[in-house]
Design goal:
The complex is a heterodimer of chains A (171) and B (248). Chain A is mostly beta strands and 171 residues long. Chain A has one domain. Chain A contains one helix and eleven strands; from the N terminus they run H-E-E-E-E-E-E-E-E-E-E-E. In chain A, a hairpin with a 3-residue loop joins strand 6 and strand 7. In chain B, the strands form two sheets. In chain B, strands 1-2-3-4-5-6-7-10 form an eight-stranded antiparallel β-barrel. In chain B, strands 8-9 form a two-stranded antiparallel ribbon. In chain B, strand 8 and strand 9 form a beta hairpin. The N terminus and C terminus of chain B are likely disordered. Classes of the chains: A mainly beta (171), B alpha+beta (248). At the A-B interface, helix 1, strand 6 and strand 7 of A face strand 5 and strand 10 of B. Chain A: InterPro entries: DUF6452. Chain B: Keywords: Signal. Chain B: This is DUF3575 domain-containing protein.
């Protein structure tokens, strides 16, 4: 009989220390604020991926992201504005100036802040404009044939996860 | 942090128990051995207050709380036990700054596992409670988690949305001690493991703290403790000789 309190005390201590483990770190596997996932395809064989080397920079930022020979490009959207303008420069290191070409795309969207967990807080998910509405989800300059991105196809207006491409670019 | 407070208080109460046990042993030795010993059991209501919740407001500006405790002895080893309380807690340390306000009641029983010397009334108990809380939660502000920050500083979104009419129900397993430190005055300590049974959750938010249950975790378990001082109001007593009883 006298062992019971001791056993319970032990159980409590074990559970107590288990409860002390940090659960305030947001796990990398938890889906949080997504980026816009652009997938680059071959304009001649549209089923094929076509890797691209480009520099990308938000129009008001000095921070350039370099993408080297990738067919999947992830574009950060602003969580505090409904529009963001990205400048994509292809072949930035080329010695032939004719191969260095720049397309500018304005992404327009609406935002929604969604509860994730105590550790992660909230995430912002986005919906590109233009899904059945008049406002386009993107505007681009220059237009083809001057643009290096020949065709842009929106596959998914809801930007919630980064698993499947939201936009396909044929070039 | 909080856990060290646990064990510190536990030791403190254990000291009381040991100290008062020694006192009795001395008294025992003074008595002639052939006298008939009478075991007296007092029945009554014990009411008290949780000193931890009461004093926490003095050093933690984000917390105000009060918990009253009571138990009533219904048999030699069993007590009906209850706690009633109110808490107001703000947490701004994590990614969400929120305030929880509400009241709770817990009711159940305690079972005393401790064999007392003679007329002592110390308690080492295990028990269970059902807890129920009604509360509101205000989301003061929150942060947007962005694993790929490009646009600089993390965004803090002011909110201020209040979610009223929230409820939660849970089961508690209790282990505790109560030691009589002065006549009819008890000092006690208890630890609790909580298991959440039901809750109404705010839309696009969660119950991060539940009055009486304390902080919630990703699962259904929680933990708590209290540190009480209480007063025993004797109502009636039973007496019986114990020459045989002590040897069984």
């Amino acid at each position: 009989m006298k062992k019971i309190p001791a056993l319970i005390a032990l159980a409590f201590m074990a559970l107590g220390s288990a409860n002390c483990e940090r659960d305030d770190l947001c796990s990398e596997s938890t889906p949080t604020t997504p980026r816009l996932f652009m997938e680059f395809h071959n304009i001649d064989v549209t089923a094929d991926l076509k890797p691209v080397t480009l520099d990308m920079r938000e129009i008001n930022s000095d921070d350039t992201l370099r993408v080297t020979a990738q067919s999947k490009v992830y574009v950060p959207l602003k969580t505090d504005a409904d529009t963001v303008t990205w400048i994509f420069t292809i072949n930035p290191e080329s010695s032939d100036p004719n191969l260095i070409r720049t397309d500018t795309i304005i992404f327009n969207y609406t935002r929604n802040n969604v509860y994730v967990s105590r550790a992660c807080g909230y995430k912002t998910v986005f919906t590109l404009n233009g899904n059945g509405g008049p406002a386009p989800g993107y505007q681009r300059t220059p237009l083809p044939p001057l643009a290096w991105m020949r065709t842009i196809i929106v596959d998914d207006y809801n930007i919630e996860f980064e698993t499947d491409a939201h936009i396909r670019v044929l070039w | 942090m909080r856990i060290s407070g646990f064990y510190g208080s536990l030791l403190f109460v254990l000291c009381f128990l040991t100290a008062s046990a020694q006192k009795t042993e001395q008294k025992e030795a003074d008595k002639p051995t052939d006298s008939v010993t009478i075991k007296e059991r007092r029945y009554g209501l014990r009411i008290g207050v949780d000193l931890y919740r009461l004093t926490r407001g003095l050093y933690d500006k984000d917390y105000k709380g009060l918990e009253l405790v009571a138990d009533y002895r219904i048999s030699p080893s069993y007590y009906i036990a209850a706690e009633i309380g109110n808490e107001n807690k703000t947490d701004d340390k994590d990614r969400i700054d929120y305030t929880t306000k509400g009241s709770y009641i817990k009711a159940g029983f305690d079972y005393n596992t401790y064999q007392n010397w003679l007329n002592m009334e110390n308690i080492i108990n295990v028990g269970a409670r059902y807890g129920f809380s009604t509360f509101s939660q205000t989301r003061n502000s929150y942060k947007i988690y962005n694993p790929n920050p490009y646009f600089g500083e993390e965004q803090i979104v002011p909110s201020g949305d209040k979610f009223d009419g929230l409820t939660a129900g849970w089961i508690e397993l209790v282990a505790g001690l109560k030691a009589e430190v002065l006549h009819n005055i008890f000092v006690g300590f208890s630890v609790r493991i909580n298991y959440l049974i039901s809750q109404t959750e705010p839309q696009n938010f969660a119950n991060l703290y539940i009055p009486g249950f304390n902080r919630t975790y990703e699962g259904k378990f929680g933990a708590g403790f209290n540190y009480t001082v209480s007063y025993f109001i004797p109502l009636y007593k039973t007496k019986k000789p114990i020459e045989k009883e002590g040897k069984k």
